Amino acid sequence: MREFIQNYLELGNETTTFTIVELMIAILLSFILSIIVTLVYKWTHHGVRYSQSYVQTVVIMSVVVAIIMIVIGNNIAVAFGLVGAFSIIRFRSAMSDPKDIAFIFFGMAVGISCGLGFYVLAVLFTFTMSALILIMHTVNYGSKGTDEKVLKVTVPENMNFEGVFDDVFEQFLDQAQLVNIETTNLGTMYLLEYRVRTKKNVPDKELMDAIRVKNANMKVTLNVSSLSY
């Protein structure tokens, strides 16, 4: 009986030691790999809404997911318990860029791989996926040339604006779509809103000057920030 208890305690100590080593490897590896993920995010991010807290969140989430996978192991009861516990969490912040969501899943996949002990897979996945992302960023994959912009043109009330800018749009734009018409300045003017895509190497000033010739030199606004993500 005493020998059985001794063997049980030794087995428990070995299991504890193995769990601690596994835990430290998972934490360190998921942290290092998630740092690589966030570096790729920083290199490929081209929007104006860069957030340091988002970058840190990806790293933290990757490590936390790795720990969760170790805790769950093969225990189905623990897995269902964690699902119930995390189901009460609500995230209120909206993602402005769909690619931000993809990087969250990227970091989570790294954490899951490390937590399950697939260390080689985690390393290979991180470097392979990072290389693919950098290649797509370098070749500007998915781009349709210039970004879509918002063009707002103010015209006098007595102007027949239908088709008046067609020749200008044909000269300077690849795409122009009228999306909104509204009255302004107590009904004495019309405000036309277009979604446009300028031709390559066309200065915005030339487009605006050509429109001002047509709209009696009234207000023209061109939103040069990208509408596509």
The SS-based structural class is alpha+beta
Main beta sheet strand tally, sense and closure: 4 strands, antiparallel
Query: Helices and strands, in N-to-C order?
Result: HHHHHEHEEHE
Number of strands: 4
What's the domain count? Answer: 2
- From the alpha-carbon coordinates, what is the Rg to the nearest angstrom? 28 Å
Q: Mean pLDDT, rounded to whole units?
A: 81
Low-confidence stretches: 8-12
Distance between the termini: 68 Å
Strand content: 5-15%
Quaternary: single chain
Biggest sheet, spatial arrangement of strands: 2-3-1-4
Q: What is the helix content?
A: 55-70%
- Please tell me what the overall shape is: elongated
Protein name: DUF4956 domain-containing protein
Keywords: Membrane, Transmembrane, Transmembrane helix
InterPro entries: DUF4956 (IPR032531)
Transmembrane segments: 20-41, 62-89, 101-134
Structure description:
With 229 residues, the chain is α+β, with helices and mostly antiparallel strands. The chain has 2 domains: 2-138, no CATH class; 149-223, Ferrodoxin-fold anticodon-binding domain (Alpha-Beta Plaits), CATH 3.30.70.380. 57% of the residues lie in helices and 15% in strands. It contains 7 helices and 4 strands, in the order αααααβαββαβ. The protein has helices spanning 2-44, 52-72, 76-86, 98-115, 119-138, 166-172, 204-214, and strands spanning 149-156, 173-184, 189-198, 220-223. Helix 4 packs antiparallel against helix 5 (119-138). The radius of gyration is 28 Å and the shape is elongated.
